[in-house]
């Protein structure tokens, strides 16, 4: 059988296009002797006919960009898509802020129990939850009596 026809049969068996089939040029005679589909299967099993590797997308450039992003590059105005609010997870920000303020409140209760008691720990706790304080510094100023 002609090599082209063998290629066609092999392509169907391996479920790829004809161009993805490789035939060992040194074994051209045994390929020509193949008559049936089973003969072609045998050639595939013996490694005389192989499926060529798929062209994969290179990740080299992607890795390079990832490396740059880790360093904090590619964050300028031209790279931004979306508003500042869309680009930050505001819930995560809120959680971090509240956790920091609550930790500070506990610390203040231990260091200055009289000042915290005067204002009420649970009241301050609820104020933190309600977003009354913008930062730890503001909370501290409030408790220490500057505000």
Automatic annotation (TrEMBL):
Domain of life of the native organism: Archaea
Residues in Large ribosomal subunit protein eL19 domain copies: 2-147
UniProt keyword terms in alphabetical order: Ribonucleoprotein, Ribosomal protein, RNA-binding, rRNA-binding
Record-level GO cellular component terms: cytosolic large ribosomal subunit
Biased composition regions of type Basic residues, renumbered to the chain: 66-84
Region of interest (Disordered), ranges: 48-92
Database matches in SUPFAM superfamilies: Ribosomal protein L19 (L19e)
GO biological process, one term: translation
Gene3D superfamilies membership: 1.10.1200.240, 1.10.1650.10
Basic and acidic residues: bias regions: 53-65
Any one Gene Ontology molecular-function term assigned to this protein's record: structural constituent of ribosome
Function: Binds to the 23S rRNA.
Family: Belongs to the eukaryotic ribosomal protein eL19 family.
Subunit structure: Part of the 50S ribosomal subunit.
Protein name: Large ribosomal subunit protein eL19
Organism phylogeny: Archaea, Candidatus Iainarchaeota, Candidatus Iainarchaeia, Candidatus Iainarchaeales, Candidatus Iainarchaeaceae
Gene transcribed to yield this protein: rpl19e
């Amino acid at each position: 059988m002609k090599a082209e026809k063998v290629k066609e049969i092999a392509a169907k068996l391996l479920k790829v296009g004809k161009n993805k089939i490789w035939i060992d040029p040194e074994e051209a005679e045994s390929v020509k002797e193949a008559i049936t589909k089973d003969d072609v299967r045998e050639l595939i099993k013996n490694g005389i006919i192989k499926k060529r590797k798929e062209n994969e997308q290179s990740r080299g450039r992607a890795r390079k960009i990832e490396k740059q992003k880790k360093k904090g590059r590619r964050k300028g105005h031209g790279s931004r898509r979306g508003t500042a609010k869309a680009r930050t997870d505001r819930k995560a920000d809120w959680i971090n802020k509240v956790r920091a303020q609550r930790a500070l409140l506990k610390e203040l209760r231990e260091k200055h129990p009289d000042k915290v008691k005067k204002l009420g720990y649970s009241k301050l706790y609820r104020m933190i939850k309600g977003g009354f304080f913008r930062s730890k510094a503001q909370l501290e100023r409030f408790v220490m009596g500057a505000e």
